[in-house]
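Could you join me in thinking about how sequence relates to backbone shape in a protein? To get us started, please write out a protein record for me. Would you write everything just below, so we can both look at the same thing?
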Amino acid sequence: MEIVNQHKDYNRTNHLVFSCQYHVVFCPKYRRRVLVGKIEERLKELILMKQKDYDYKIIEMETMPDHVHLLIDVNPKIGIYNVISKIKGFTSHSLREEFPELKSRLPSMWTRSKFISSVGSVSIDIVKKYIEEQKGV
């Protein structure tokens, strides 16, 4: 069987071919508007840095001062919940170490909640467009 779809990139491992994209949103504790300037830049670097280690691929990413949008492709053997938990844990630890002012403003970097939606009911292009347009809001 051959998988053919011009609009979709498929990932491959030894025994798995997959394409599992999700739209994810998560927020700093108390929805504080701390994701600005150098903190915003560093957050994006940290998220991109761990793609290979945590087995995910960022398709699109946008940060607002009080929340993060990700369009992410995740290996189904690992799972989206685990990947987002790892991203939040790693970025929280790193950002709070590098920016001590975050420790005084927030007891923890992120809320425990997150929004996760599979990108199946709408096209991936629509979700990409939505994430890009969030900067203008």
